[in-house]
């Protein structure tokens, strides 16, 4: 092979190598551009979700603590409201009426001490915890006595589905309690309580 042919062959090899390097560089540039676009997209989605789900600006910590502590005491009108709600719930269970049971939930004041227990544990307030537990125990005893009195006067002729449905809890009941409690917490921390959130508070009674 002549020197000229060798020289031409070397030039062709160099040209191929250069083309391959250019292609690889173009591929790397495209990969970097795609990666940059993906990072920008993820950052935009993260920012959007953060702004969508952030409710810190709409909360009032001090007012929430004050409101929860105000619902803990159990005396006077609160005691009578509890007795009435237990009678209504007992009638609903006896009559196998879901609507009546829900009505009892709407007027029951049991959630006050329960929220007080949760709050006192969260902020490490021993006095509030003791007060909440005492009031909760009194409310439970009064509820049991009221229910006993009703069913002693009006005994069940047969086990109703409303009653049996509350004796066999499963994981769905746990999920209802968890997400219902979460909704209740968010609702109680709002600066302004709307009618919808007020109903959420009422319907989360035990």
From TrEMBL:
InterPro entries documented for this protein: DUF389
Keyword Transmembrane helix: yes
Keywords, comma-separated and alphabetical: Membrane, Transmembrane, Transmembrane helix
Disordered, as annotated region: 1-23
Record has Transmembrane helix as a keyword: yes
Pfam families named among the record's database cross-references: DUF389
Record protein name field: Putative integral membrane protein
Sequence intervals crossing the membrane: 77-93, 99-121, 133-154, 174-189
């Amino acid at each position: 092979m002549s020197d000229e042919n060798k020289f031409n062959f070397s030039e062709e090899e160099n040209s191929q190598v250069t083309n391959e390097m250019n292609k690889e560089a173009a591929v790397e540039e495209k990969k970097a551009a795609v990666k940059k676009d993906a990072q920008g997209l993820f950052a935009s989605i993260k920012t959007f979700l953060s702004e969508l789900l952030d409710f810190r600006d709409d909360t009032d910590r001090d007012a929430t603590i004050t409101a929860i502590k105000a619902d803990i005491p159990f005396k006077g009108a609160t005691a009578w409201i509890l007795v009435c709600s237990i009678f209504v719930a007992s009638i609903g269970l006896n009559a196998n009426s879901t609507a009546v049971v829900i009505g009892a939930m709407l007027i029951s004041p049991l959630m006050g001490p329960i929220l007080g227990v949760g709050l006192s544990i969260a902020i490490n307030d021993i006095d509030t915890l003791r007060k909440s537990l005492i009031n909760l125990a009194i409310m439970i005893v009064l509820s049991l006595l009221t229910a006993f009195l009703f069913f002693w006067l009006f005994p069940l002729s047969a086990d109703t589905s409303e009653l049996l449905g509350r004796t066999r809890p499963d994981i769905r009941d746990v999920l209802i309690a968890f997400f219902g409690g979460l909704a209740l917490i968010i609702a109680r921390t709002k600066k302004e309580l709307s009618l919808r959130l007020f109903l959420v508070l009422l319907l989360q009674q035990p």
